[in-house]
Amino acid sequence: MLQINENYQKLPGSYLFSTIAKKVAAFTQANPDKNIIRLGIGDVTLPLAPAIINALHAAVEDMAAAETFRGYAPDLGYDFLRKAIVENDYKARNCDICEDEVFVSDGAKSDSGNIQEIFGPQCKIAVCDPVYPVYVDSNVMAGRTGVYNKETEMWSNVIYMPCTAENNFVPEFPKETPDIIYLCLPNNPTGTTVTKSQLSQWVEYARKAGAVIIYDAAYEAYISEDNVAHSIYECEGARECAIEIRSFSKNAGFTGVRLGFTVVPKDLKCNGVSLRDMWARRHGTKFNGAPYIVQRAGEAVYSTEGKAQLKEQVDYYMKNASAIKQGLKDAGYTVFGGVNAPYIWLKTPDKMTSWEFFDYLLENANVVGTPGSGFGPSGEGYFRLTAFGSYENTVAALERIKKL
Ligand code: MLT
User: Fold this and answer.
1) Which residues contact 240 (CB under 8 A, 6 or more apart)?
2) Which atom of ligand 1 is nearest to 41's Cα?
């Protein structure tokens, strides 16, 4: 008899950003004359940098000639891209990572949702609270979580690590021992991060616990402080306990182009089985590679011109982050983040819930943000604004918020 995967039935509502999009669409339909400023989903707004565009054009030309045409990409990704990744993201930071430990993909969202497949159904996950919803939802779909408690907004069989103003948004080691630990640093949604020495303690903890850290470093390009690690492999011992997921979306504006990669070191083993080999098997079976033209665009991210142009883009967004942070502070808000990340995490005013503030901001300032509670129960009473808008819109949104 045909059966569905019942785990999907356990998921409450729709994906956070789909819910927001529906709410905004309804508001727009009812108020067609309002000029809405979207600082909700972390989607970039600057066009692709010239170095990327040139690489895309050249790669399209390659596809037009029989001598340079490419069909299926190699399983792990093209050598030219994996070489650039290893040289620039790892060797340049003294991280011992080699090319056959890098798996090129169509983005960090898919990888962070798919990576749980190589672990057993009984593994217990630990997540920060608030957290990027993909980590939890993908484990719900796989049947690794228990039931959802509507009151607490928590799943049974999941270890939550609250990240609040009280602990500076730095997760504490859980009392119960997890098998898989999800860390996103710099953090989405709080925009905060940890020092390299704090991250090293997590590596030590995971090694002692026999756990694996799934390290989402999608926002590493936004790190501005020297004592913050860009890769978990800067920490000693991480090769034995960590998988790192990277994105080209936020550092190079590839949200619509789609490119990312995951690093699974050969030293990472579970009962003698290589997780790197398992991920290779999974990747080869279920994925046919990111397009050649996109991988060439990814290579251009590491070119001299690419690096300079993308630094300008990151600086542009971080100028927005500073403007939001300062503007909100001036308006009397309590704000966090925005120093090593393109997200500002603010306390909602007048004890409003996160969704109350979402509606209030949408209706009165026509500004869209993301309710903190959408990322988990400890996000209640908080709200996220993204620095990925245009500078003009960012300043205009702040002017509106100040007038509330
Ligand atoms: C976000 O807004 O949290 C991100 O854009 C989501 C994502 O990167 O998938």
Assistant:
1) 207, 265, 267, 268, 269
2) 2
Distances (CA, A) of 390 to 21, 68, 316: 19, 38, 9
Q: What is the pLDDT of residues 14-58, one digit of tens each?
A: 888 999 999 999 999 999 999 999 999 999 999 999 999 999 999
Q: Which residue has the tokens 């704000």?
A: 335
Q: What is the pLDDT of residues 343-354, one digit of tens each?
A: 999 999 999 999
Pocket test for ligand 1, best of 38, 43, 384 (most atoms within 8 A of CB): 43
What is the whole-number distance in angstroms between the Cα of residue 1 and the centre of ligand 1?
38
- C-alpha span between 348 and 392 (Å, rounded): 24
Instruction: Over range 259-271, report the average pLDDT.
Output: 98
Structural domains of the chain sorted by starting position, each given as residue range(s) with its CATH number in brackets: 13-47+305-402 (3.90.1150.10), 53-304 (3.40.640.10)
Mean pLDDT over the full length of the chain: 97
